[in-house]
């Protein structure tokens, strides 16, 4: 580990900083940007100014082309030149002085010590968890990143691209909302969500603004605690994708699961070739633009393409302009048909991209989208799952609703409830005090899945949270499932 004392007498700032390498992270970015590992917040410091790296038992400092430059001891640092560090060395960046106080050069010893420290750190489970907000970062004028830790500490284990459900109490009412995790599981002691403020639509001022998103922006403060409902959820992840080529397409706050994937790919030094396409209105709206540009500059396998529909007046923009089109996509990534494609953004954006890619010949099996925020679809009556030999009708066959009220037998709870078929199985369970874990409430995350032993249901929407094997094994999603006749469910 490397111990630094950082001070700036002109503004009275003083801090100790310890940089600890591990098997994944061996370098730290220094600069004015809030995403840097060491933030030096004065105008004389560039947003991304320099870095300290660890390589084969030695720590180095490099200037990354900063505006005002850096000095190591009394020598002006050349751009991208590595300067070996030793105790008592001085790095000068703007008005800041970084003094090297001591270092541990044996990485294996450092890793071993960390393993000893982490033996008592629990892992994230599917239980509800209370976390504490330790940092709030203003990414753009209407987007904030909220950083959370657990006390006592746990290791947040999840797949990049998954989401988490917040269980909040707002004005005395319980509210649940799902948000993509924007942090990466390669940095397991911190969990982050990146949230966009949601105003009422300009053409529909009567529509209420985003309740939870705006509450987080206006009310949540550093030091506050909130509850996470269950563990990580969702199947939108590239973690198990063996395709050597990936295409990540996002718009607006849909970048959040993509940034998690990008950070994970970067930290794990993956060899997959990644094209990251981000569509926005103005340059000032691009979330985490600096970090994305840095990843593209430092990773030859990561290619960034940004398209703006309304470039800022008076500011030059040499990138792509307009909405995603066949010509633009072909220019950005000519081999897109060979890639696994992941898409996230507003509903209309995702529908447009899916149609565009389909018309251009992308194999359907290569397309993946995040849709836990998409509105519910029209109800349909089906019996989509059955156990072997159950004798039930197959998927898609219509079932006539019986004249008598359906009954739901909750086998594990020992309760049988008569209902009118107008409330979902999950709602009926909650009214009877039967605990079924839930998340998105839209049939996407799969958190509430339970096995159905008998009877027919109808779905309001598509059971996207179940794969084909789970459906064949008899699982249903109670959050969007409605009883048609007498059913039995393992709950």
TrEMBL record:
InterPro entries: 2Fe-2S_ferredoxin-like_sf, 2Fe-2S_ferredoxin-type, 2Fe2S_fd_BS, Beta-grasp_dom_sf, Cbr1-like_FAD-bd_dom, FAD-bd_FR_type, FHA_dom, Flavoprot_Pyr_Nucl_cyt_Rdtase
Key word Plastid present: no
Keyword Zinc-finger listed: no
Molecular function as annotated in GO: 2 iron, 2 sulfur cluster binding; metal ion binding; oxidoreductase activity
UniProt cross-references to CDD domains, sorted A to Z: fer2, FHA, FNR_iron_sulfur_binding_1
Keywords, ordered alphabetically: 2Fe-2S, FAD, Flavoprotein, Iron, Iron-sulfur, Metal-binding, Oxidoreductase
Cofactor annotation: FAD
Segments of this protein annotated with the region Disordered: 383-403
Residue ranges constituting the FHA domain according to the UniProt record: 28-77
2Fe-2S ferredoxin-type domain ranges (all copies): 406-491
Domain FAD-binding FR-type, residue spans: 126-239
Protein origin, superkingdom: Bacteria
Protein name, as recorded: Ferredoxin--NADP reductase
Source organism of the structure: Crocosphaera subtropica (strain ATCC 51142 / BH68)
Taxonomic lineage of the native organism: Bacteria, Bacillati, Cyanobacteriota, Cyanophyceae, Oscillatoriophycideae
């Amino acid at each position: 580990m490397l111990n630094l004392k950082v001070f700036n007498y002109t503004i009275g700032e003083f801090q100790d900083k310890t940089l600890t390498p591990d098997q994944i992270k061996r370098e730290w970015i220094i600069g004015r940007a809030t995403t840097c590992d060491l933030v030096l917040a004065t105008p004389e410091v560039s947003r991304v100014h320099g870095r300290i790296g660890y390589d084969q038992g030695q720590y180095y400092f490099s200037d990354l082309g900063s505006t005002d430059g850096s000095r190591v001891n009394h020598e002006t640092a050349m751009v991208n030149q590595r300067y070996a560090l030793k105790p008592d060395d001085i790095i000068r960046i703007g008005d800041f002085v970084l003094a090297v106080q001591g270092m541990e050069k044996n990485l294996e010893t450092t890793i071993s010590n960390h393993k000893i420290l982490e033996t008592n750190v629990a892992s994230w489970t599917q239980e509800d968890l209370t976390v504490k907000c330790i940092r709030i970062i203003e990414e753009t004028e209407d987007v904030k990143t909220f950083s959370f830790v657990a006390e006592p500490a746990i290791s947040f284990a999840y797949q990049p691209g998954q989401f988490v459900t917040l269980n909040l109490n707002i004005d005395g009412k319980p509210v649940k909302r799902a948000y993509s995790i924007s942090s990466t599981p390669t940095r397991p002691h911190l969990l982050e969500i990146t949230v966009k403020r949601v105003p009422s639509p300009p053409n529909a001022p009567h529509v209420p603004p985003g309740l939870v998103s705006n509450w987080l922006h206006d009310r949540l403060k550093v030091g506050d605690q909130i509850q996470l409902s269950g563990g990580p959820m969702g199947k939108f992840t590239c973690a198990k994708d063996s395709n050597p080529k990936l295409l990540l397409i996002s718009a607006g706050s849909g970048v959040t699961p993509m940034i998690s994937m990008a950070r994970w790919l970067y930290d794990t030094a993956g060899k997959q070739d990644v094209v990251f396409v981000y569509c926005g209105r103005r340059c000032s709206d691009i979330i985490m633009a600096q970090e994305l540009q840095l990843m593209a500059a430092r990773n030859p396998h990561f290619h960034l393409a940004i398209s703006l529909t309304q470039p800022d007046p008076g500011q030059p923009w040499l990138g792509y302009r307009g909405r995603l089109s066949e010509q633009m996509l072909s220019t950005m990534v000519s081999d897109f048909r060979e890639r696994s494609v992941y898409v996230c953004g507003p509903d209309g954006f995702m529908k447009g991209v899916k149609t565009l890619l389909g018309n251009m010949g992308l194999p359907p099996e290569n397309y993946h989208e995040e849709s836990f925020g998409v509105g519910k679809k029209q109800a349909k009556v089906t019996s989509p799952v059955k156990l072997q030999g159950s004798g039930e009708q197959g998927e898609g066959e219509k079932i006539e609703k019986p004249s008598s009220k359906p009954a739901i037998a909750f086998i594990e709870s020992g309760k049988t409830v008569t209902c009118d078929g107008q409330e979902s199985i999950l709602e009926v369970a909650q009214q009877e005090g039967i605990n079924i874990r839930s998340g998105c409430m839209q049939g996407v995350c799969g958190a509430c899945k339970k096995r159905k032993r008998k009877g027919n249901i109808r779905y309001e929407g598509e059971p996207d949270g179940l794969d084909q094997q789970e459906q064949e094994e008899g699982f249903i999603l109670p959050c969007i499932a409605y009883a048609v006749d007498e059913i039995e469910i393992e709950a």
